[in-house]
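In practice, a research group might receive sequence data for several interacting partners and want a quick structural hypothesis before committing to experiments. The following worked case mirrors that situation: the sequences arrive first, and a predicted assembly follows.
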Amino acid sequence: MSMIKYILRRLLVMIPVLFGVLLITFVLSRMMPGDPILANIPQVFTQEQYDAARHRLGFDLPIWQQFFIYIGNLFTGNWGYSVSINKGQEVWELIWQRFPRTIDIALFSMIIASFIGIKTGVISATHRNKARDTILRGAALIGVSIPIFWLGLILQLTLSYRLGLFPAVGYKTLTYDEPVFLTGFRIIDSLVSGQWYIITDYLYHLALPVLCLSFITLASITRQTRSSMLEVLQQDYVRTARAKGCREKDVINKHAKKNALIPTVTVIGLNIGGLLGGAVLTETTFNLHGVGELLLRAIVDRDYYVINAIVFMVTIIFIAVNLFTDLIYAHLDPRIKY
Amino acid sequence: MTQLVEQEFELEERKEKSIVKNIFKWIGLNLKFLFVPGYRIEELTIREQEYEKTISKRKFIRRLKSILTIIGIAIVFMIVTFAVFAPWISPYTFAESNGVYTGSWDPPSPGHLLGQTNFGRDILARMIWGARSSLTIALPAITLSVVVGVIFGIIAAYFGGWIDSVIMRISDIFFAFPGLIFAIVLVGVLGRRMEYIILAYGILGIPYYSRLIRASVLQAKELPYVEAARVSGAKNWRIMFKHIMPNCIQPIIISFTFDIGGVILSFAGLAFLGYSDPSLIEWGRDIDIGRGHLVNAPWASFWPGLMIIFTVLGFMLIGDGLRDALDPRLRNL
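A structural hypothesis for the assembly, expressed as tokens:
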């Protein structure tokens, strides 16, 4: 019961944060120089045409009125219409064509990074100050310092252009069709319609971007796991476990690892923001047509509603993931109660 | 008369010289004390407290003396040298490495050791000039966020109540923005000028630092020395910035060095996406330029990227060393 209360309280705290994010993005996007109305009227135009377009798009109202109309529409499910990228298309539709891909690469890379990162972190903690630890720590430090877009380019150059192992750009082979549209997620859609070749093709194309993006979180997860593991290994209960004759494997995996994972989960949760930002870079490098690329185009084209909607969605995901990680604590550590 | 003036002049000069000499002597003594085990300064042994203080300093230096940290210091020293002395080190001047020549995308040759990028510009020269813009953007940005973040964090934690909740809710809002996306929007709004990029990253870092220091101030403000200061009549501001802040600044120092690397990395990403000051030479943008000719001229994007890795690695190594030396939780490990 207290758990539900806790979730409710967290959701209530979310509201002012979301409002603030919306306000800031709205104001910032309206401050941008440039005029999207010009994209909606002919090259040579009269003042009447301009005013008519402005009225039609709702840009003639005072700015605060526009803001409240926008907020009202947002929560009733009307996310507005694209003004300049794809004129007249609903923003929601425009984003949903691209969002699944971004989620896919972010999710896959997060899973891969957590798996490898926790493993390497534990290894370097248990072999502290030995050769293996030094190598892993050095690798993690270098991993933190690599710009992922550069890594992406190098991977493209070596693995795809020179060796031809992976496709360099895009998310599908050009001749392949789109699967039947159900959820927008390519994997789920083709699974439902039974087109297995699309899934393998898709995963094959995602391999390099995911590898690249997982580098962002991999190193920080390794480092966090190592330091919290080292701390836990000093504790009395680990000594007790060893004294009572547990195998070393069980001491590490059952007694120590579970306690050491709690700070790591926080790091994973906080990294989701960096991951979504990194997705912008990876999508640009690998030409994936994801939501990050859409955001860049929306900023260039001054498509206000698209910018606002993307930032809004990304913020919601960030907050939701952090709430989720807080809830995972209770599962990992029964001592924590809400 | 004139003789007298000259004499006085000489005397003053000698005095000045002796001051400089004293300073050098003092620095020498301190360095000896810190690095040579067993070396003592007599003055300090008289005053017990001072001695204790320097003993801990010596320990700190000794902990800092790991091989990785020294490598990091060397790398950062090299990058700073590149940035400061670029006109002397770089084979071409700033104008020349931004000029238009023949030989675009040419492979390495004696005149251009690492090859040429677009418009026949020399890559080595651009790598060296790039250090300057990276540091001139990263350092002020981090300083801005540390100063403002620390002030807000201390105020929030010290006063508590509604001030705390207002500041923390605002920082929540900025925290919820993914960093790179916020920077893109902000630079898109303000314009592609160096000052605005600095401002964008400065604002981005503020909530992080204010949270970091808030946590330690919350613990520190309950300690007896704060109460003692209050009893002896210190004003709030004095307690906050003279008594509490020096005791809570350690995690900030650690993450400061880490974050210089982080900002350089993130800022390179921003430049890669095309949001950079066109009047500067930046590694990120050089990578973007070289991207179009990845297959026939890989050196154009390879070398600037290596430079980014190097710089960030240097700051990260120093940050790692500092954390090992300063973090009390790691001390016993």
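Before designing any experiment, note the following. Chain B has a mean pLDDT of 82. The two ends of chain B are 71 Å apart (CA to CA).
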